[in-house]
Amino acid sequence: MVVLHEGLERAEWLVFHGAIDEAVPLLDAAENLSGRSAVYAAWLKGVALGACGQYGKALEVVEGITQGTPEYSMARSLRASLLRQLGSHDLAVVADREAMANAATPGAAIEAMTGLAADAVGLQEALTASTMLGQARSLLQKVAADPANAPIWWRHSVRVSWVECEVALLESRYPDAVTYATTALDAAESANAPRHVAKSLLFLAVSKIEAGQREQAVPDLRRSLMLSGSMGLLAVEWPTHAVLAALLKGGDPRAAHTHFVAANAITDTVRQGLTGDLAQRWAERDDILALRREAS
Q: For 126-172, what is each residue's pLDDT tens digit?
């Protein structure tokens, strides 16, 4: 367990329980850090930058966390998460394998296994996803078996439920997807974690749409937008705009276009922060190209 430098306490709270965009300036201003406090601060900054859609900067920060520290596995898992959000699941799986190979704690192992399952979903490998997810869930159940310890595993529980939802969607088990997304939402709300609530609401809305509950999905999307927009959570805000736009397109084309434009503007912002192969991959994604057409 890292004994937090006093200057990190507020930043950590903001990353997990407050407005995450406010954490970045605090982490930028943190001085005189050394040892594991400095490493943990870098990891927190990577999380915050990624959530705010600044993937290029987040990846640069994460690369500064070198092998040989307990946080290295977490850093590799974070790198993989950032790459998945950019749509580069083939690159993410390499980072998650590194995370798994260097996992020194149950928490790090759960992170890595959950990440590998998410990578497999993106690569359309349902069997691999289910296998890795089963291992992650089994380990999580063991470490959280004591009710006194269960609350500290809330973030792992939410993330496992997200990927369970993704696997259910991949396998067209839409009612199960709704159940898993609801479980994630309940855990995030119990932990007072607005960033995780916003993303869980997006998962829930997509699951409801696929399950034929289109009208019920709209309030979830609007609430997710309220949260993500107020926190600068671009990583959740743009896909939420895009899903809501697609949902409204038939009945309210003007409102739908407004959301398409908003989503496209955010993806342009993300693109400006990327370079090289990642920038090209982002620009050539089918969903990004479709957004650009709809927003024009």
A: 999 999 999 999 999 999 998 888 889 999 999 999 999 999 999 99
The token pair that represents 94 in the structure block: 């390499």
What span, in angstroms and rounded, lies between the C-alpha atoms of 47 and 155? 13
How is residue 2 annotated by DSSP? -
Whether 71 and 43 have beta carbons less than 8 Å apart is answered as yes
Domains of the chain and any CATH numbers: 158-296 (1.25.40.10)
**Is the model's pTM score more than 0.90?**
yes
Q: In the 8-state DSSP scheme, what is residue 153?
A: G
- DSSP letter at 18 equals S
**What is the gyration radius of the CA atoms in the chain, in angstroms?**
18
Are 80 and 96 in contact by the 8 Å Cβ rule? The answer is yes
Q: How far is CA 21 from the centre of its chain?
A: 15
